[in-house]
């Protein structure tokens, strides 16, 4: 699909060739979180290179992109909601990214609280913005909820921006979960657990 406005966004699966750019987006996201008072959600290392590569290789990573590389002012304005289109723009920019998983998440088995239900669900992980455009996380969450009706996600207790986005999109805070990461001692082990199920 070709978009008449280069600022129009779409989603596509990441490929191995995208990994260096993905790593830069995550580095930017860690910096923004640290500067915003949330340095311990991802620490200084997460997500790890082997994790990034596995997500891409297994088809779990999605990129939110536009084609405004030579016309950055084109991102100003209102466009159609992004959809999945497996095309690469000639002047493509990564606006944001995330990983999406189908099936039970091992980290979600033990919750201090209670999920909304035990029905099959999708899990969103590793949402990050490149800083090249606004509302990246909101576009990502909106797309997921347009296509999947039972979705879980977690975020750091100090990630107030993501908490606001999730609650704006009618996710319910269900409690806390723990994540143990021996590779990254400067990372918090506690996460807020969110769930939305549209019946």
UniProtKB/TrEMBL annotation:
One of its GO terms (molecular function) is transferase activity. The keyword Transferase applies. Gene3D superfamilies: 3.40.630.30. Keywords: Transferase. This is Acetyltransferase. It comes from Bombiscardovia coagulans.
């Amino acid at each position: 699909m070709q978009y008449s406005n280069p600022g129009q966004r779409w989603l596509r699966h990441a490929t191995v060739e995208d990994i260096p750019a993905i790593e830069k987006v995550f580095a930017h996201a860690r910096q923004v979180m640290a500067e915003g008072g949330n340095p311990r959600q991802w620490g200084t290392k997460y997500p790890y290179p082997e994790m990034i590569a596995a997500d891409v290789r297994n088809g779990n990573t999605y990129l939110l992109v536009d084609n405004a590389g030579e016309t950055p002012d084109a991102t100003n304005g209102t466009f159609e909601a992004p959809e999945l289109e497996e095309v690469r723009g000639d002047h493509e920019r990564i606006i944001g990214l995330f990983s999406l998983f189908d099936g039970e998440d091992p980290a979600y088995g033990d919750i201090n609280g209670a999920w909304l239900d035990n029905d099959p669900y999708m899990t969103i992980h590793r949402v990050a913005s490149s800083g090249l455009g606004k509302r990246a996380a909101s576009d990502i969450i909106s797309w997921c909820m347009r296509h999947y009706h039972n979705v879980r996600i977690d975020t750091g207790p100090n990630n107030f921006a993501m908490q606001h986005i999730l609650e704006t999109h009618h996710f319910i805070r269900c409690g806390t979960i723990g994540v143990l990461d021996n590779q990254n001692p400067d990372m918090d082990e506690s996460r807020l657990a969110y769930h939305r199920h549209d019946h």
